[in-house]
Amino acid sequence: MNAATTPGRFISLEGGEGAGKSTQVARLAELLAARGIHALVTREPGGTEGAEAIRTLLMQGGVNRWSAHSEALLFAAARADHVEKLIRPAIGAGQWVICDRFIDSSRAYQGVAGGIDDAAVMALHGFGSRGMLPDRTLILEVSIEEGRARAARRDGAAADRFAARGNDFHADVAAAFRRFAAQEPDRCRLVDASASADIVAAAIHAQLADLLP
Ligand SMILES: Nc1ncnc2c1ncn2[C@@H]1O[C@H](COP(=O)(O)OP(=O)(O)OP(=O)(O)O)[C@@H](O)[C@H]1O
Ligand SMILES: [Mg+2]
Question: Is residue 140 part of a domain?
């Protein structure tokens, strides 16, 4: 079976800062390519010209540049553009799409950690993106300390508006992701991301086995 005969699939990778999402997005694209599936790799916030412009607004500036409500609207607007112009057409054409963060990051960061009801975050998603959900969401779990250490090794002292927040905020995000996995076990799978990148890649592969041709 090749890409032309497989149905398009939508996979998102989620998790806290420095968990290894971007690393594993690239690893998953390689794994799929070895099976003849040339996935579209994209990220949030961003992925389209307009959404990348919104990303700059969201990631730069002081921690308090936006309230959780403003952030939720900006993320929803960026996602709406991304879904309409890139993700939905690709899936419709039978392509696999791998997205570095998606709606569950809004639910965890602006929702649970930011104090906005999940129903309100999902209402924005319903309006902006017609509620589009991934076929599978891999939630990478590492301790906050390990995530920070990995990001610091990568970036040095630089931190964006989200990485700059305190441990309580990041603990709320981590708890939110675990709750989503418990609530939606078919879509959301927890992956222990504390091991080497090879072991994490194998765990992700195992969690996608039923979707692979
Ligand atoms: N399993 C791993 N073990 C050790 N280091 C790792 C592992 N996976 C990724 N790294 C390294 O940790 C750093 C953070 O990884 P990566 O950028 O993939 O995380 P991320 O979740 O995308 O981070 P961010 O939330 O900042 O986007 C990188 O330097 C990467 O090479
Ligand atoms: Mg990343």
Answer: yes
Q: Is 103 in the pocket of ligand 1 (CB under 6 A)?
A: no
Nearest of 147, 195, 141 to residue 167 by alpha carbon: 147
Could you tell me if the CB of 138 is within 6 A of ligand 1? no
Substitution site in 13, 150, 153 for ligand 1 pocket (most atoms within 8 Å of beta carbon): 150
Radius of gyration over every alpha carbon of the chain, rounded to an integer in angstroms: 16
What digits encode the pLDDT tens for the residues 142-168?
A: 999 999 999 999 998 777 888 788 999
Residue closest by Cα to atom 11 of ligand 1: 150
Per residue in 51-107, pLDDT (tens digit) is: 999 999 999 999 899 999 999 999 999 999 999 999 999 999 999 999 999 999 999
Given the structure tokens 């104090």, which residue do they identify?
Answer: 115
The total of structural domains in the chain comes to: 1
- Domain harbouring 37, CATH code: 3.40.50.300
